[in-house]
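Case study: Transporter.
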Amino acid sequence: MDFSSLTPALWLGLLGTPLMIAMGQVLFKLTSRSIGSFSVGGLLALAVNPVLLAALVLYGLGTIIWIYVLRSVPLTIAYSFMGLTFCFVPVLAQVFFGEPLSLRYAFGAMLIIAGLLTINV
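Here is what the predicted structure looks like once written out:
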C-alpha cells in the first residue's frame, strides 16, 4: 500500500483509534477505583457509573472510526497500528496515575514502533 495516498482523516483514524482505546483503558482504571462488591447492587451501580459510560462511549466511537478506516486500508496494515496502544497506555498511566515508566518500557515502545515501520514501509 502506498501511504502517500492516505488522507489526513485516515491517518487520524489509524493513530487516533489506538489512542482512544488507550484513553478508554485509563477510564476503566478510574472506574475500578469506585466499584463496590460483585453483587447485584454493585453491578447496578457500575452500570450507571459515568466514568464507565464515558469509557464505553469512547470505545464505541473508536470502533466506528476504525470501521471507516478499514474501508480504505487493508486489515493487515491497519491492525499493526493497534500495537500503538501498548505505547500509549503506559504513558497515559504515568500521566494520570503516576505509574513509573522505565528504560525497559522505552526500549519496548521503540521496538513496537520499529515493528510498525517494518511492517508498513
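For the exam, be able to explain this: The chain has a mean pLDDT of 91.
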